[in-house]
Amino acid sequence: QVATVTEYGAFIKIPGCRKQGLVHKTHMSSCRVDKPSELVDVGDKVWVKLIGKEMKDDKLKLSLSMKVVNQGTGKDLDPNNVSLDQDERKKRTFRDYTSQKITLEAVLNTVCKKCGCKGHFAKECFMQPGGTKYSLIPEEEEEEVAAAGCERDKKSNVADDSSKKRKK
Protein backbone atom coordinates (compact mmCIF):
# COMPACT_ATOMS: atom_id res chain seq x y z
CA GLN A 1 0.00 0.00 0.00
CA VAL A 2 1.30 3.49 -0.90
CA ALA A 3 2.19 5.35 2.30
CA THR A 4 3.50 8.66 0.91
CA VAL A 5 4.20 10.13 -2.53
CA THR A 6 7.16 12.44 -3.07
CA GLU A 7 8.61 14.21 -6.10
CA TYR A 8 11.21 11.44 -6.53
CA GLY A 9 9.03 8.37 -5.92
CA ALA A 10 6.62 6.67 -3.54
CA PHE A 11 7.09 4.96 -0.19
CA ILE A 12 5.29 1.63 0.06
CA LYS A 13 4.11 -0.13 3.26
CA ILE A 14 4.95 -3.82 3.07
CA PRO A 15 2.32 -6.08 4.70
CA GLY A 16 3.61 -8.04 7.71
CA CYS A 17 6.61 -5.73 8.05
CA ARG A 18 7.16 -2.44 9.84
CA LYS A 19 9.55 -1.20 7.14
CA GLN A 20 8.64 0.91 4.14
CA GLY A 21 10.42 0.71 0.82
CA LEU A 22 10.97 3.32 -1.86
CA VAL A 23 9.84 2.92 -5.46
CA HIS A 24 11.93 5.51 -7.28
CA LYS A 25 10.15 7.23 -10.17
CA THR A 26 12.53 5.48 -12.62
CA HIS A 27 11.20 2.12 -11.37
CA MET A 28 7.50 3.01 -11.42
CA SER A 29 6.93 2.40 -15.11
CA SER A 30 8.80 1.43 -18.25
CA CYS A 31 7.80 4.87 -19.56
CA ARG A 32 9.24 8.13 -18.24
CA VAL A 33 7.53 9.37 -15.08
CA ASP A 34 7.90 13.07 -14.28
CA LYS A 35 5.44 13.27 -11.40
CA PRO A 36 4.86 10.10 -9.35
CA SER A 37 1.64 11.64 -7.98
CA GLU A 38 0.10 11.26 -11.46
CA LEU A 39 0.66 7.48 -11.29
CA VAL A 40 -0.17 6.59 -7.68
CA ASP A 41 -2.03 8.13 -4.74
CA VAL A 42 -1.71 7.55 -1.01
CA GLY A 43 -3.66 4.41 -0.07
CA ASP A 44 -3.38 2.74 -3.50
CA LYS A 45 -2.43 -0.94 -3.46
CA VAL A 46 0.35 -1.82 -5.89
CA TRP A 47 2.49 -4.87 -6.66
CA VAL A 48 6.22 -4.40 -6.06
CA LYS A 49 9.42 -6.40 -6.25
CA LEU A 50 12.36 -6.01 -3.87
CA ILE A 51 15.35 -5.04 -6.06
CA GLY A 52 17.84 -3.88 -3.45
CA LYS A 53 18.72 -3.62 0.24
CA GLU A 54 21.20 -1.15 1.69
CA MET A 55 22.41 -0.54 5.23
CA LYS A 56 23.02 3.17 5.80
CA ASP A 57 23.53 4.75 9.23
CA ASP A 58 22.30 1.53 10.94
CA LYS A 59 19.05 1.77 8.96
CA LEU A 60 17.89 -0.71 6.37
CA LYS A 61 16.77 0.94 3.11
CA LEU A 62 14.67 -1.11 0.72
CA SER A 63 14.53 -0.41 -3.00
CA LEU A 64 11.38 -1.56 -4.75
CA SER A 65 10.24 -1.70 -8.36
CA MET A 66 6.77 -1.60 -9.89
CA LYS A 67 7.79 -1.83 -13.55
CA VAL A 68 9.00 -5.45 -13.35
CA VAL A 69 5.72 -6.67 -11.84
CA ASN A 70 2.39 -7.03 -13.63
CA GLN A 71 0.15 -4.61 -11.73
CA GLY A 72 -2.98 -6.63 -12.56
CA THR A 73 -1.85 -10.10 -11.46
CA GLY A 74 1.30 -9.50 -9.39
CA LYS A 75 3.32 -11.80 -11.66
CA ASP A 76 7.09 -11.14 -11.78
CA LEU A 77 7.86 -9.97 -15.34
CA ASP A 78 11.63 -10.13 -14.81
CA PRO A 79 12.36 -13.30 -12.78
CA ASN A 80 16.07 -13.37 -13.71
CA ASN A 81 16.62 -9.62 -13.21
CA VAL A 82 17.69 -9.15 -16.83
CA SER A 83 16.01 -5.76 -17.33
CA LEU A 84 17.41 -4.49 -14.01
CA ASP A 85 20.93 -5.45 -15.15
CA GLN A 86 20.33 -3.68 -18.46
CA ASP A 87 19.19 -0.53 -16.64
CA GLU A 88 22.36 -0.56 -14.54
CA ARG A 89 24.51 -0.91 -17.66
CA LYS A 90 22.72 2.03 -19.30
CA LYS A 91 23.53 4.23 -16.30
CA ARG A 92 27.25 3.48 -16.55
CA THR A 93 29.12 5.75 -18.94
CA PHE A 94 32.30 4.93 -20.80
CA ARG A 95 35.15 7.24 -19.89
CA ASP A 96 38.31 7.45 -21.93
CA TYR A 97 41.13 8.26 -19.55
CA THR A 98 43.88 8.07 -22.17
CA SER A 99 42.93 11.30 -24.01
CA GLN A 100 45.26 10.35 -26.84
CA LYS A 101 44.48 11.24 -30.41
CA ILE A 102 44.02 8.38 -32.81
CA THR A 103 46.09 8.67 -35.98
CA LEU A 104 45.72 6.61 -39.11
CA GLU A 105 49.27 7.01 -40.35
CA ALA A 106 49.60 3.35 -41.28
CA VAL A 107 46.80 3.68 -43.84
CA LEU A 108 47.70 7.21 -44.98
CA ASN A 109 51.29 6.24 -45.81
CA THR A 110 50.35 3.15 -47.83
CA VAL A 111 50.39 2.93 -51.63
CA CYS A 112 47.76 0.95 -53.49
CA LYS A 113 49.21 -1.93 -55.53
CA LYS A 114 46.29 -1.74 -57.95
CA CYS A 115 46.31 1.94 -58.98
CA GLY A 116 49.52 3.29 -57.42
CA CYS A 117 47.78 6.07 -55.42
CA LYS A 118 48.48 6.83 -51.76
CA GLY A 119 46.10 6.40 -48.83
CA HIS A 120 44.33 3.10 -49.38
CA PHE A 121 44.88 -0.61 -49.86
CA ALA A 122 44.29 -2.57 -53.08
CA LYS A 123 41.27 -4.37 -51.56
CA GLU A 124 39.67 -0.95 -50.88
CA CYS A 125 40.58 0.50 -54.29
CA PHE A 126 37.75 2.23 -56.12
CA MET A 127 39.52 2.78 -59.45
CA GLN A 128 37.80 1.46 -62.54
CA PRO A 129 39.96 0.11 -65.37
CA GLY A 130 40.81 3.10 -67.58
CA GLY A 131 39.11 5.46 -65.09
CA THR A 132 40.30 8.54 -63.19
CA LYS A 133 42.91 8.03 -60.48
CA TYR A 134 42.22 9.65 -57.12
CA SER A 135 44.73 10.24 -54.35
CA LEU A 136 44.85 11.96 -50.97
CA ILE A 137 45.48 15.70 -50.92
CA PRO A 138 49.16 16.25 -50.01
CA GLU A 139 50.17 17.86 -46.72
CA GLU A 140 51.15 21.57 -46.58
CA GLU A 141 54.89 20.80 -46.61
CA GLU A 142 54.50 18.65 -49.69
CA GLU A 143 52.40 21.39 -51.35
CA GLU A 144 55.17 23.97 -50.81
CA VAL A 145 57.75 21.65 -52.37
CA ALA A 146 55.40 20.89 -55.26
CA ALA A 147 54.64 24.60 -55.75
CA ALA A 148 58.35 25.44 -55.83
CA GLY A 149 58.87 22.69 -58.41
CA CYS A 150 56.02 24.05 -60.56
CA GLU A 151 57.52 27.57 -60.47
CA ARG A 152 60.86 26.19 -61.71
CA ASP A 153 59.03 24.33 -64.48
CA LYS A 154 57.22 27.52 -65.53
CA LYS A 155 60.49 29.49 -65.66
CA SER A 156 62.15 26.81 -67.80
CA ASN A 157 59.07 26.74 -70.07
CA VAL A 158 59.27 30.53 -70.50
CA ALA A 159 62.96 30.20 -71.37
CA ASP A 160 62.15 27.41 -73.85
CA ASP A 161 59.39 29.54 -75.41
CA SER A 162 61.75 32.51 -75.90
CA SER A 163 64.41 30.27 -77.50
CA LYS A 164 61.79 28.82 -79.86
CA LYS A 165 60.73 32.34 -80.89
CA ARG A 166 64.35 33.25 -81.69
CA LYS A 167 64.73 30.20 -83.88
CA LYS A 168 61.76 31.19 -86.00
From TrEMBL:
PROSITE patterns: S1, ZF_CCHC. Residues 1-67 form the S1 motif domain. InterPro entries: NA-bd_OB-fold (IPR012340), S1_domain (IPR003029), Znf_CCHC (IPR001878). GO terms for molecular function: RNA binding; zinc ion binding. It comes from the Eukaryota. It is found in: Nucleus, Nucleolus. Residues 145-168 are annotated as: Disordered. GO terms for cellular component: nucleolus; ribonucleoprotein complex. Residues 112-125 form the CCHC-type domain. Coiled coil: none annotated. The keyword Zinc-finger applies. One of its GO terms (biological process) is RNA stabilization. Pfam families: S1. Keywords: Acetylation, Metal-binding, Nucleus, Phosphoprotein, Ribonucleoprotein, Zinc, Zinc-finger. Residues 150-168 have a biased composition (Basic and acidic residues). Its main location: nucleus. Interacts with PNN. Associates with the 60S ribosomal subunit. This is Zinc finger CCHC domain-containing protein 17. It comes from Tauraco erythrolophus. The lineage of its organism: Eukaryota, Metazoa, Chordata, Craniata, Vertebrata.
